[in-house]
Specification:
The structure is a single chain. The radius of gyration is 20 Å and the shape is globular. The N and C termini lie far apart (41 Å). The strands form four sheets. Strands 3-2-4-5 form a four-stranded parallel beta sheet, sandwiched between helices. It has 14 helices and ten strands. α6 packs antiparallel against α7 and α13 packs antiparallel against α14. Helix content is 48%, strand content 18%. It folds into two domains: 151 residues, Rossmann fold; 181 residues, Dehydroquinate synthase-like, alpha domain (Up-down Bundle). By secondary structure, it is α/β, with parallel strands linked by helices. Bound molecules: nicotinamide-adenine-dinucleotide and zinc ion (ZN). Zinc ion binds next to α11.
């Protein structure tokens, strides 16, 4: 399956014909309010909005059922198109709903959060949460195109900008010294979010997904910082604390860097420079050390693990990520105390 190309919103009307096709637009209340009219300017003609509530709690089967009902009610045929206009929640459930309706209609991702622009909208992973399990049901199906319009970020709250920026830091570390240096010199994150810089960052994920769509091997490196990040999110949920995914990943990257120094001889002063930068942008949750036990216990459940070993993605150097590095709970626990 070829990787989806990225186009600018100005080019969208070359690919979608609102006269010939029924075009549905999945939005949540925020993306409808702030972004739908911009899409309509670039894609004049009839667009049928499907509106859902905002938030991770909507990423479930009930919402997918609602989307299918709307498609059926409006007589969507095989040539209908679904545009996912929103953050990662919208692209995850919209991508799944489109890929399963009539065994698959084409869909476009138009990400409106930074996290979705650089991560969720790219790479074809779709799905929803079921029971207490995140992303447990889903399929991999690439969108027709990913449509980039950094202007959507103007209405995005600051906390969500910083949230998505964590994935940009991750991509830069995977990519190499040049992009990492650019990121480390950022003082104002919003100023950095130009079309060129966002595109350069997306390319890191795209290249990897192109080589390993189904995460058999190489794609695992995109989990850099995520072993610990997911464990932090789990501990937050268990203890009723609120943390965004990117905020947890940022602290996951800090632990990953110290582990990389300990296990793969990653250069210590390089690591500390990056850690200082991350700490400047991500304040430490007051409860982080308090729930150390929960976080370490959660590591055992991480999807990348085999038996009792914790498989982490670590850096041998910037631009040289290694997956399946076997670490123990004790090793991570020791590093944890140092952050
Ligand atoms: N499929 C993948 O590969 C992948 C990768 C990373 C994350 N994800 C998923 O993405 C989700 C997180 O994505 P997210 O952070 O974008 O969350 P989100 O979709 O909940 O969006 C965050 C918030 O921003 C609001 N919003 C969206 N665009 C806006 C805009 N332009 N202006 C103002 N507000 C706006 C939304 O209404 C929401 O309140 C998670 O469910 C995660 O599992 C998927
Ligand atoms: Zn992530």
């Amino acid at each position: 399956m070829p990787v989806s190309s990225i186009i600018h919103i100005r080019q969208l009307n070359k690919y979608i014909d609102t006269q010939e096709q029924k075009v549905f637009v999945l939005c949540d209340s925020n993306s409808y309010k702030h972004c739908f009219h911009i899409l309509q300017e670039h894609l004049p003609g009839s667009l049928i909005p499907i509106k859902v509530k905002t938030g991770e709690s909507q990423k479930n089967l009930v919402t997918c059922t609602y989307i299918w009902e709307q498609l059926i009610k409006n007589k969507a045929q095989k040539d209908a198109v679904l545009i996912n206009l929103g953050g990662g929640v919208i692209s995850d459930i919209g991508g799944f709903s489109a890929s399963t309706y009539k065994r698959g209609i084409s869909y476009y991702n138009i990400p409106t959060t930074l996290l979705a622009m650089v991560d969720a909208a790219i790479g074809g992973k779709t799905g929803f949460n079921f029971g207490h399990l995140k992303n447990i049901i889903g399929i991999i199906q690439n969108p027709e195109k990913v449509v980039l319009h950094p202007g959507f970020l103007e209405s995005l709250p600051e906390r969500h900008i910083i949230n998505g920026f964590a994935e940009m830091i991750k991509h830069a570390l995977i990519d190499g010294q040049q992009q990492t240096n650019k990121i480390l010199s950022v003082t104002n994150v919003r100023d950095y979010l130009t079309q060129t810089n966002i595109f350069e960052n997306i390319r890191v994920k795209q290249k990897i997904v192109h080589r390993d769509l189904h995460e058999k091997d190489l794609r695992k490196i995109l989990n850099l910082g995520h072993t610990i990040g997911h464990a932090i999110e789990y501990a937050a949920l268990k203890n009723k604390k609120k943390i965004l995914h990117g905020e947890a990943v940022a602290w996951g990257l800090i632990v990953m860097l110290r582990m990389s120094v300990a296990k793969l001889q990653f250069n210590q002063s390089k690591a500390e420079k990056i850690i200082d930068f991350i700490k400047k942008h991500y304040s430490k949750p007051a409860w982080l050390q308090l729930y150390r036990k929960d976080i370490l216990a959660a590591l055992i459940h991480d999807k990348k693990n085999t038996r009792l070993n914790i498989n982490m993605v670590l850096l041998k150097d910037i631009g040289d990520a290694r997956y399946n590095v076997v670490c123990t709970n004790d090793e991570i626990g020791k590093i944890w105390r140092s952050i």
